[in-house]
Amino acid sequence: MSNLRSLTFDAIIIGGGGSGLRAALELAKSGKKTAVLSKVFPTRSHTVSAQGGITCAIASDDPNDDWRWHMYDTVKGGDYIADQDAAEYMCSEGPKAVFELEHMGLPFSRLDNGRIYQRPFGGQSKNFGEGGQAARTCAAADRTGHALLHTLYQNNLKNNTVFLNEWYAVDLVKNASGDVVGCIAMCIETGEVVHVKSKATVLATGGAGRIYASTTNALINTGDGIGMALRAGFPMQDMEMWQFHPTGIYGAGTLVTEGCRGEGGYLINKDGERFMERYAPNAKDLAGRDVVARSMVMEILEGRGCGEKGDHVFLKLDHLGEEVLGKRLPGIVELSKTFAHVDPAKDPIPVVPTCHYMMGGIPTNIHGQAITMDESGNDHIVNGLFACGEAACVSVHGANRLGGNSLLDLVVFGRAAGMFIEGALNEGIEYLDASESDIESAMKRITRWNESEGGESIPELKAELQEIMQTSFGVFREEKNMLEGVDKLALLRERIANAHLPDKSNAFNTARVEALELDNLMEVAEATAIAALERKESRGAHSRYDYPDRDDVNWLKHSLFFPATKELKKRDVNFKPKTVDTFEPKVRTY
Amino acid sequence: MSNLQVSVYRYNPETDSAPYMQEFQVDTKGRDVMVLDVLHMMKEQDSGLAFRRSCREGVCGSDGMNMNGKNGLACITPLSDVVKNNKLTLRPLPGLPVIRDMVVDMGLFYKQYERIQPYLQNDTPPPAIERLQSPEERDKLDGLYECILCACCSTSCPSFWWNPEKFVGPAGLLQSYRFLADSRDTATSERLSNLEDPFSVFRCRGIMNCVAVCPKGLNPTRAIGKIREMLLADAT
Amino acid sequence: MVTNITSFGRSGLSDWLMQRVSAVILALYTVFIVAFLLFNPNLDYYTWSGLFSQTWMRIFSLLAFVALAAHAWIGLWTVTTDYLKSTRLRVGVQAVIILGIFVYLVWGIQILWGA
Questions:
Q1: Is residue C2 part of a domain?
Q2: Nearest Cβ partner of B57 from A105, A335, A505?
Q3: What would be the CATH architecture of the domain defined by A1-241+359-589?
Q4: How far is CA B161 from the centre of its chain?
Q5: Which whole number is the average pLDDT over A298-325?
Q6: CATH number for the domain including C71?
Q7: What's the rounded Cα separation, in Å, for the pair A126 and A130?
Q8: What's the confidence (pLDDT) of residue B225?
Q9: For chain B, how many structural domains are there in total?
């Protein structure tokens, strides 16, 4: 393997979405030799699909808004397993990060006084839940993610970040001491495989919604970073926590922003009833996403669903009028015409809860440093490995993420990771070089595919995996079904290990990329399945028929899945914010 | 219901000495699916078929291609919009070098985008909060910032075909005007002086193919007209 | 910024403006000549040369000739840079065009003022 070409950087950032580009920007500005390695051209990353906005207490809509109120909402929204020091950091640093984005040129919508427009989103309150609905989500019409991602890419161009576009990271390279010292990556255009050496490897690879058959996620969201970290033996946190977004377009799965409900839209069942009034009398359609999604499924199960099969509900927007729709939700009008054949100014949009966001991921501290846990339950930093964005679990979202908190997470923790790495590089980092055999073990997987001579087809196995996850690990879960799912996944893992890559060519071989992605989907699915089976309670997005209540005695904890033993352990949640009092767990109602 | 006849441009530099068109029969079960769905069905028949895709909802700009002679995004183009006589011909975006099958080398396109300095420039120190901008000033950016860099416009523009190294092209110029029109940008005269040569802007002949194909409904020709007006106002 | 030494004004803006101004001059001249022909259905040599013996007509015609030369050069230069990718061929063709335009211009002036 010594004939492998190597590239050396101070920091390599894997993933060109919001968090990766934000981290890269910080490092590029400091003059560190930084590269962003992305399997797609950066502006094709999934951040581009974020619609509604970035939630942050910038005190524009309400001059008295307070980041502590935002923090309270975040902790409550996460059903109290969000780490409070991380939520504190995100909500208090947030305004700075958002103003920086504005200074970089992000074209936010505006209020008459020239400040950034903010809209109401689900789970937002003033005065720690006592002051009614807040409007805290900063928006660029309904294309905030697009505006944010392009702004970050543009500013990376300005600061001369090195881009390895359309390169695919295959696996992490660890040295003899277990430090991460880079990765194996493939140039998709030429098929060349190289060893990327780096003192800091940042996994900013986003989510993995493609483990489900029905998802709002892009086709590229295959959990590559999660798969790489799991194969390298690092644990995953809270992987049972998958958010099902209430409003995916029925049939197509494309997202319709929560901002629709923020602007005054609401859900109706087949009788035309605004059913959320029954489930969440105060917040109604702007309750937490997990609450709304479950309520929708209840309506459908109880026979009040819409359509011939009664398997979806409607999102009503026509009462907002064409002007508001055109000004505030132009992208939604476009999407629903294209994918639902419905003009929202006239008819309601058919929607159904759809897999949207992975709250779990690589456990990190607020500096983006990856964490593992020893036998006696003590945290340890993984040298050289960082994560930020959806791939990471800091954890600010706990068991359920609030709308608009994802974009804030990206920029705040991308920025934090960048700043921390810059400091660490300035102080000097020395790790052992990877040996031949270290590199070889990171090459094992791609070699396996390249030498496969027969076996099952990749797209079929992928479809089976997605079907298993959809059936056994959806909005509502129960033991028997999940056990079946876990068994099926174990068999599937064997089959994938023997699957066949028919096309071995080098130039832009997308079949090879899909084969490598399938391995990652498998890793994510397994971690999700085992964590979901083991967490015997209902909390946030994890909702079980057989354990319908929250169990704070046993499960006010993070779950930590260890790949080597396939065991699930518990990790303490942080209840010690630095500047505010702890938010004690309360019954969560909206 | 007879199968859809799809003719696809194929070229693998490792095995093919020249590109060719390959015929596929695709059973869409009579549904009016998107062209991208058809590509996925074909990839199940032949895993070697290469094309880019990501968001599958028309916002990432990966799957720009030429469908029955017209550029567009495969993921938001239903068959009923393009198929004629049950036939669909798919080719890569014209005017850029082909890497493999439907995948083109977008290097020239991105180079022209980078040339217009696609980032906000403001030489005053930033305030502690955001820079203020009135809703009217912000409205000027509508129809400009939404570009997804899919290259459908520039690769349908004859002027870009003839001078891809020198003519910025409709996508780049739309972004150029996005920053010229931004009340927060202070580099107007520098931006304009970089554009006054005979090629960068003035190769636009007002053919308006860009407007006809833009999947986001944007109007680069109008933006180019505005740049010309600004250049004229600046120089006279 | 793309630099070019063979373009008319070495600036796209001035070329663009010149193309439009010259087009207006040529349009006016054309309208005048067509109108003159229509109003003089039985045009003879004396009327025609009488027209061109007046100073204002000679200046107007000269203006139109110069506009035509500029217009033709800018237009043909553009065509050559679009379609002729071989530098040698393009410069050759451009030289022929310049020579042609020069000959026509001198010839035109000679006819106008030479009589």
A1: no
A2: A335
A3: 3-Layer(bba) Sandwich (3.50)
A4: 13
A5: 95
A6: 1.20.1300.10
A7: 6
A8: 97
A9: 2
Same domain assignment for residues B94 and B45: yes
Q: In this predicted structure, what is the pLDDT of residue A1?
A: 45
Look up the CATH number of the domain holding residue B218. Answer: 1.10.1060.10
DSSP characters for A375-404? TTS-EEEEEEEEE-GGGEE-SSSTTSPPTT
Tens digits of per-residue pLDDT, A500-556? 999 999 999 999 999 999 999 999 999 999 999 999 999 999 999 999 999 999 999
Is residue C94 less than 8 Å (CB to CB) from chain B?
Answer: no
Residues 10-39 of C with CB under 8 A from B: 10-17
Domain borders along chain A are 1-241+359-589, 248-353
Q: Mean of the pLDDT values across residues B168-194?
A: 97
Domain A248-353 class, CATH top level: alpha beta
The 10 Å Cβ neighbour count of residue A578 is 9
Question: Does residue A2 have a pLDDT over 60?
Answer: no
Q: What is the mean pLDDT of chain B?
A: 96
In chain B, which residue's Cα lies nearest the Cα of A220? Answer: B54
Q: Is residue C5 part of a domain?
A: no
Instruction: Give the long-range contacts of residues A336-342, CB within 8 A, separation 24 or more.
Output: A336/A249, A336/A256, A338/B57, A338/B58, A338/B76, A338/B78, A339/A249, A339/A251, A339/A252, A339/A254, A339/B57, A340/A249, A340/A250, A340/A251, A340/A252
Partners of C20 on chain B (C-beta within 8 Å) are: none
Q: What's the confidence (pLDDT) of residue B45? A: 93
B44 interfaces chain A, CB cutoff of 8 Å: yes
Phi and psi angles of residue A46, each rounded to the nearest 5 degrees, phi first: -70, -20
Q: What is the pLDDT of residues C10-65, one digit of tens each?
A: 789 999 999 999 999 999 999 999 999 999 998 999 999 999 999 999 999 999 99
Supply the range of the domain harboring residue B208: 106-235
Kindly report the pTM of this predicted structure.
0.96
C-alpha–C-alpha distance, residues B156 and A355, integer Å: 37
User: A288 pairs with which residues across the strands?
Assistant: none
Mean pLDDT of B221-231: 97
pLDDT tens digits, A69-125: 999 999 999 999 999 999 999 999 999 999 999 999 999 999 999 999 999 999 999
Cβ atoms of residues A170 and A516 within 8 Å = yes
Which whole number is the average pLDDT over A10-17?
Answer: 98
Which residue in chain A has the smallest CA separation from B11? A507
- Predicted complex ipTM: 0.98
- Which residues in chain B are closer than 8 Å to A163, comparing Cβ atoms? none
Same structural domain, B112 and B218: yes
Catalytic member of A119, A143, A261, A289: A289
**Domain termination site, one of B103, B121, B156:** B103
C115 to chain B, any CB pair closer than 8 A? The answer is no
- Do the domain assignments include residue C4? no
A334 in B contact zone (CB under 8 Å): yes
A289 is a catalytic site residue:
yes
Same domain, B86 and B145: no
Total domains in the fold of chain C:
1
Judge whether C6 lies within some domain: no
pLDDT mean over B73-97: 96
CA distance A359 to C27: 69
Strand partners, A312: A306
Q: How many C-beta atoms surround the C-beta of residue C34 within 10 A? A: 10
